[in-house]
Each structure stands twice: as structure tokens, then as C-alpha cells.
């Protein structure tokens, strides 16, 4: 399948789509799944694709009409997720299969995730007799800040097999951080929670030569930005940190005019519920206090986005064992610290025990310390990891279903 999967990945890469509406991507996924023994539904609010494979227990229930409404209950259910959306980034890789869409790029590797999940579906369908229960394949749009997972959960993806999933797994590629082909994970918090900060500072405009006759929102905004960076190092435990980055600053039209307003936007990352709650309280208080000192007003919007992505410790250990059995124990890297990125697979793991795993797609000859990272217009991901990702997803589902109905707490 390798050639077909790589071809699919590159077709997706050439035609990236952003957000919740991915019609060409959905069309490609449906074509790639055509002919497989899957129960396929598409999203009502989004262009998602949900496919259910009935394993041995599922087919036995379907043969028994009396058991038709308790699908998934006996043989267990595993969910596998692959996100499909791209980013509003203009590609600068120079690859022969680079994006043909101006201002859009698969800069986070979701094209690989989609191809891997298609591969896992084909593998499991080809070996249905070895699949004890049901598998839900979750092809998700809108991971990049569009709440695609939330939309699919609201439409019932966690219960798509007729019963709640017993476990859920997802892979994410990174073009750096570890030797190529390495899998990485950790129990507990794997990725950060995220929040948005939107600030508008309102002052009184005037001439740049007489700032005392105005109320300068630019000076106030500059002090706010500096103070925020200091606060996160002084008000939070270094072992339970908060990361705050200002990515947007806007003010003024000419160098000698003090404008009426200035605005900035920031992303805030945290790794515990306590740190997230404290940031939500402290940040607005700091900003309004600085505004008062400058005699300006501040409109502060603090918007919680995603919760932290928390791996179930038992499921993470199980995934590590499957990696060792499928490949080699040396292929797994135990992560000492979480990643400060955020993921809406966190919403799945908040309801179903499971694990989110990283996979290094470092290109040949690249240095993991300096290779362009996810979201870079120059990020390059090695196709060679696609079959390994597909194989691991399939084996996670197969091995986990062999252990259902045992709960995750009962896994060795």
C-alpha cells in the first residue's frame, strides 16, 4: 500500500484546504475508502468522515437481529483519529508536490495523518477476522483552531459504533525533535491548554511632538506586553509554567501621530487546570491596572480555547508496548516534558481514555535541532513514516480490542 498512501498524501498536500469545509479533501478520503467493508457517514455541520469497521463481534451481532441495537457493547470499540485540515500559510518548501493553493499549506502534517488513517483502515479491513471488536475511523476537519473535534463529538463520533469507544488514539508528525521514525509519548499532560488574549487600548490621539496633551495607547500597550512577559515568570511556578506569546500588534498610521487606539493579540499556554485558572484571573487584572496608570482604557477578552491533552497512563504504557512489539522498543522515546502546542484531540481524551503519540518525520539529512518546525512555511515531512504510522494505528486498535471488555485500569 505504500505507493498508494504516499500518492494520496501528496495529492492532499497539493490541494490543501483550511477550516471546517474541506470538500476536495473529503472527496479524496471517500474515494480512498471506496469498496472497503465500512459503514461511512459524513458530517452535517462539517466535511468530516466517520467510518466504522465491524470486527468479529460486530458482525456476529448484526447477524442476530435481537442484538442490533447493542452494537459495540460486547466486542468493544476503539477510535482512531486523523485530522485533515491545512493552515493559512504560503508554502516556501520548493517541493515538486508543493501546494498549488495560494496562502494555504499542509504545514502541520495533517496530510500525512489522513493518509496514515486510510492505511490503517485498509489494513484492518484486510484482516477483519483478526479484529475482535469495532473500529471507528475519525477523519476530522478543523483541528487548527476551528473546534472540529467538538463538532464531531456533538454529532456522535464517540458513539458511532453504537456504543461509547473504550479507547482512542491519534498520531501527530513533527519534522524535528527526535531521530526520524521515533515515536514519543508521556503519561499525563502531553500538550498544553490554550487560550486567546485580545486587547484593545483606547486613549486620546494627538501630535507626536506633544504627548503630554494626549493619552498614548501605544506606550500603554508596549508596557502591557513587557509586563505580561515578566508576570508569567514571577507569578507562576517554574514547574507549572505558563507560556505567553504576543503574535499581533497594531497601532497608528503615521510616525508623528499618536493614535486613538492600539491593539494586540496573544496566545497563552498552560499545563494544569490551576495555572489556567490563575492566568485567566491575573492577566486581565494586570492589564487594567496598567491602563489606569496611563489614563487610558483597556478592553480585555480572555478566551479559553482547548483543555490540555492528557494521556491516560495505562493506555500510554499499552501504546509503548505495542510500538515495541510492532517495531522495536528503541523506536519509542519517553518524553520528559509536555509539548506547549495544543490539540483538540484533547476533547476526545477528556471523555475516552487513550493516548496521543508523536512521530518524528524528520527529512533525510536534516538536523532535528534546526529543521523547520510545524507551522513553518518551510516545514518538510518525510513520506517514509506514513506506512509506520498506518501500521501502528492498526495494531493499536487490534491489540486493544483483544483486551476488551477489560477497562483501561485492567490493562497490564
Describe this protein's structure.
- The protein is 32% helix and 23% strand.
- It has 412 residues and is α/β, with parallel strands linked by helices.
- An 8-stranded mixed sheet has the order 1-2-4-3-5-16-6-15, sandwiched between helices. It has a 4-stranded antiparallel sheet with strand order 10-12-8-13, covered by helices on one side.
- The longest helix has 22 residues, at 273-294.
- The two termini are 33 Å apart.
Topology of this structure?
Layout: H1 2-14, H2 23-33, E1 38-42, E2 49-54, H3 56-63, E3 77-83, H4 110-126, E4 134-140, H5 148-154, E5 167-174, E6 183-185, E7 188-191, E8 193-202, E9 206-207, H6 217-234, E10 242-251, E11 257-258, E12 261-270, H7 273-294, E13 297-304, E14 309-311, H8 313-326, E15 332-334, H9 346-349, E16 354-360, H10 386-402
Parallel strand pairs: 3-4, 3-5, 5-16, 6-15
Antiparallel strand pairs: 1-2, 2-4, 6-16, 7-14, 8-12, 8-13, 9-11, 10-12
Helix pairs in contact: 1-4, 4-10, 6-7, 8-10
Amino acid at each position: 500500500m505504500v505507493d498508494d498512501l504516499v500518492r494520496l498524501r501528496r495529492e492532499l498536500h497539493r490541494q490543501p484546504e483550511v477550516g471546517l469545509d474541506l470538500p476536495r479533501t473529503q472527496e479524496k478520503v471517500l474515494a480512498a475508502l471506496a469498496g472497503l467493508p465500512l459503514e461511512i457517514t459524513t458530517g452535517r455541520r462539517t466535511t468530516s468522515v466517520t467510518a466504522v469497521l465491524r470486527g468479529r463481534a460486530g458482525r456476529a451481532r448484526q447477524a442476530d437481529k435481537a442484538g442490533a441495537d447493542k452494537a459495540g457493547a460486547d466486542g468493544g470499540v476503539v477510535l482512531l483519529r486523523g485530522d485533515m485540515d491545512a493552515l493559512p500559510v504560503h508554502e516556501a518548501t520548493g517541493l515538486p508536490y508543493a501546494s498549488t493553493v495560494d496562502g494555504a499549506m499542509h504545514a502541520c502534517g495533517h496530510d500525512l495523518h489522513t493518509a496514515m488513517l486510510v492505511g490503517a483502515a485498509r489494513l484492518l479491513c484486510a484482516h477483519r477476522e483478526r479484529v475482535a471488536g469495532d473500529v471507528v475511523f475519525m477523519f476530522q476537519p478543523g483541528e487548527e483552531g476551528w473546534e472540529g473535534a467538538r463538532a464531531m463529538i456533538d454529532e456522535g463520533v464517540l458513539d458511532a459504533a453504537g456504543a461509547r469507544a473504550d479507547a482512542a488514539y491519534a498520531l501527530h508528525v513533527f519534522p524535528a525533535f527526535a531521530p526520524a521514525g521515533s515515536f514519543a509519548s508521556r503519561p499525563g499532560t502531553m500538550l498544553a491548554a490554550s487560550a486567546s488574549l485580545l486587547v484593545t487600548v483606547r486613549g486620546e490621539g494627538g501630535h507626536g511632538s506633544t504627548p503630554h496633551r494626549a493619552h498614548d495607547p501605544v506606550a500603554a500597550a508596549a508596557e502591557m506586553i513587557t509586563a505580561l512577559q515578566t508576570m508569567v515568570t514571577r507569578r507562576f511556578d517554574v514547574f507549572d509554567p505558563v507560556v505567553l506569546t504576543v503574535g499581533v500588534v497594531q497601532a497608528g498610521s503615521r510616525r508623528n501621530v499618536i493614535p486613538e487606539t492600539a491593539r494586540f493579540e496573544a496566545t497563552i499556554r498552560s499545563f494544569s487546570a490551576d495555572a489556567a485558572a490563575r492566568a485567566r484571573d491575573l492577566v486581565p487584572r494586570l492589564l487594567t491596572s496598567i491602563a489606569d496608570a496611563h489614563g487610558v482604557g483597556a478592553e480585555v477578552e480572555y478566551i479559553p480555547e482547548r483543555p490540555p491533552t492528557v494521556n491516560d497512563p495505562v493506555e500510554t504504557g499499552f501504546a509503548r508496548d505495542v510500538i515495541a512489539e510492532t517495531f522495536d522498543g528503541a523506536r519509542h522515546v519517553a518524553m520528559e516534558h509536555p509539548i506547549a502546542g495544543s490539540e483538540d484531540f484533547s476533547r476526545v481524551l477528556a471523555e475516552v481514555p487513550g493516548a496521543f503519540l508523536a512521530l518524528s518525520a524528520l527529512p533525510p539529512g536534516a538536523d532535528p535541532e534546526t529543521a523547520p518546525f510545524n507551522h513553518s512555511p518551510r516545514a518538510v515531512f518525510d513520506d517514509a513514516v506514513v506506512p509506520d504510522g498506518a501500521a501502528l494505528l492498526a495494531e493499536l486498535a487490534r491489540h486493544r480490542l483483544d483486551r476488551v471488555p477489560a477497562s483501561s485500569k485492567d490493562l497490564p
